[in-house]
Amino acid sequence: MVERIQIASTCWEPFEGSTLCLDARGTIQNELVLEPFSFNPAAMIHPSKVVSIHPYFKVKAGNWAEAKAALPEFVAKTSTEKGNLYYDFTISGDVIFCREAYVGAEGMLAHMQNIGATLAEFLKLVDVVRVEVHGSAEELAKLKAPLADLKPQWFEFERGVTDRSPALA
Fold first, then answer.
1. Per-residue pLDDT tens for 108-125?
2. Does the pLDDT of residue 39 top 90, yes or no?
3. Interaxial angle between packed helices 104-122 and 64-78, expressed in degrees from 0 to 180 and rounded to the nearest 10
4. Among 23, 128, 126, 134, which residue's Cα sits nearest to residue 65?
């Protein structure tokens, strides 16, 4: 029967630059520090500076394969845009929805210019069911003339959970 086992301190490096050590009792001797990851609320983009557009497209009969095949081209072009925050497609039946957001009106306008030719071809395959544009009054004002042909419904930013962010800083 073993009455006592002596264990030397054991250390390992779970993440580069961080060492974790256990003593003989299994107690952690060093603090684990995760760097360079840190949460900085002040660095977050406030929703009043974000503009999102929500287009819904109904695929015309017989065009499903061609419409779906166009989606990767939109994603590839958008992935090069510095002002893009997110961009993805979801599908419900014969409706394709694009969920996308940009840093300010300038980010969205740069996107529209970037995808213009691709969108023109895509619009031959689909009908626009609905378009929503969300943002602050200041950012929406910059978009009303350039996006008028889409006949969007305009949603003005009012408030959100981020209104608490100064308390976090």
1. 999 999 999 999 999 999
2. no
3. 150
4. 126
Q: Which two tokens stand for residue 106?
A: 């300038």
Q: Which residue has the tokens 């626009």?
A: 128
Mean of pLDDT values over 19-27: 58
pLDDT-derived band at 167 (thresholds 50, 70, 90) equals: very low
Tell me the C-alpha distance between 126 and 11, whole Å. 60
Name which of 82, 88, 81, 168 is nearest 116 in CA terms: 81
The model's pTM is 0.70
The number of angstroms, rounded, from the C-alpha of 90 to the middle of its chain's C-alpha atoms is 14
Report strand pairing: 153-156 vs 126-135: parallel
Total count of domains within the chain: 2
Residues 24, 74: one domain? Answer: no
**C-alpha 111, offset from chain centre:** 15
Confirm whether 134 is domain-assigned. Answer: yes
